[in-house]
Amino acid sequence: MLSENIERNEVGELCFAGQSIRRLAEQYGTPLYLMDADRIRANCRMYRNAFRESFGEKALPLYASKAASFRQIYRIMAEEGMGVDTVSPGEIHTALRAGFPAEKIWFHGDGKTDEDIRYAVRAGIGCFVVDNETELACLQAEAKAQGIRQKVLLRITPGIDPHTYEAVNTGMVDVKFGVPIAEEQALHFVEKALSMDALEVAGLHCHVGSMVFDEMVFEDTVDHMVSFMKELRDTLGYETKELNLGGGYGVRYLETDKTIDIPARIRALAEHIRQRTEEAGLPMPFLLMEPGRSIVADAGMTVYTVSTVKHQPGFKNYVIVDGGMTDNPRYCLYKASYTVLHESGHEGKKETFDLVGRCCESGDILQPGIKLPADIKRGDLIAVCITGAYNYSMASNYNRLGRPPVVMLEQGESSVAVRRETLDDLCAMDL
Ligand code: LLP
User: Fewer CB in a 10 Å sphere around the end CB: N or C, the chain?
Assistant: First the structure.
C-alpha cells in the first residue's frame, strides 16, 4: 500500500489507521476528512529526533500550519514540542484558542496589513518573518507604540530553482516573496532592519518551494544563504544567529512517487551547513525549518459516496461523488495526482473513469483516468489517499456546499475535530 496506515483487514475492508472506512462513513457521513493523529505525531517526532540528532538543542522544527489549520492540530503540535508557522491572524487565533504558546508562533506573509501586525504584536507572538521594507517600517512603528522589542527574521530570496511546479516555486529571484540577494537588495533590507530600535533581528528566513524532491535544492540554498551571511558579517558586522530554511519536502501521492528519507536528508543538510559556516568562519546558526505537507499529508484520507456513474460508450466514463473541488481543489489548481481506492477492493473487471465532483462546472475533477470496478454504483464508497495537506485548509463553500467534518483517528478511537457545516452555517454570516 501507499502508506503504512492504509490497509485491508481480513475481510477485505479498506481501513485507515486501523479503522474501517465503511464504519466511519456510517458514523460520520460523507464526504469525510479523516486524519490519523498517530501519524501526525510520528511525523513530528521524526523531525524532532532528526533535528536533535543533527543539531543538538540548537534547532526547532515549526509546523507550517497552512497545510491544515484547526484547533486539534495546534494541540498536537504543542504536545509534540513543535513551533508553528502561521500566515494570518486567523491561524494565530486558532493556535491561541487551542492553548498553543504564543512565543512559539512565527508569523509569515507578504501582505500583512496594519491590523494583522497590531493583532500579532498584541498577541505576543514569538517572531515575525518580515517579507519586505514596507512591513519593516509598519512593524517598527507598531512595536514602538506597544512598547516592546519584536523579534524578527528577514525573508530573503536566494535565487534557487527548486524544480517543482510553478504555483509553489518561491525561491527564484522573480517571485512575490521576500527580498532578493541579487543587486544588494537584501543587504539594504538587513541594514534597514538593523537600524530599527524596536526590532531584534534574530536572523534570516528563506523558503524555495514545496514538493521538493531534488536532493541538492536545500544544499544549494544553504550555499547562497551562508555566503550572504558572510557578506553581512563582513560589510555590516552583523552575525546571523538564526537561519530558517523554510519547508518543502515532497511526499508520495502515488505508489510510483519517490520516497524521501527525511532524517537522512536532515543529517546531510546539517553536515553541509556545518562545513559551509566553518569555511566562512561563521558560528553554526540556530536552525529552523517549516515542514507542512510532510507532517500532515499522509495522515489524511477523504471518503466519498458515489452519487452517479455514467458509462458513455465511445466517450469518457464518469464517477460522480458527493464532494469535489470544494473539498479538494488541488487537481483543478495544480493537476495534482492522487491514489483513489474503491472501498470493496474487488478484483473483478475494471474500467477507466474520471472521478469528478458535484459542483456545477466541468472543471470539477478530483482525478481523471483512474481504474475502478466496472460495476461501481451509487452508494459505493471511494477513498482518496494522502489528502491531509492543503485539502481541508483550501476547501471552499462554492455552490454553497458545506465543508466536510474532520474526524481524528487516534489509538483506535475516533472523534470529531471539526464538525460538518450545516445549511444554517452556510448563511450564518448573511445579514
Ligand atoms: N514555509 C513557507 C514560507 C511556505 O510558504 C510554505 C508553503 C511552507 C513553509 C510549507 O511548505 P511544505 O512543507 O508544505 O511544502 N497549496 C499548495 C502548497 C502551497 C505551499 C505554500 N507554502 C498545494 O496544495 O500543493
Answer: C
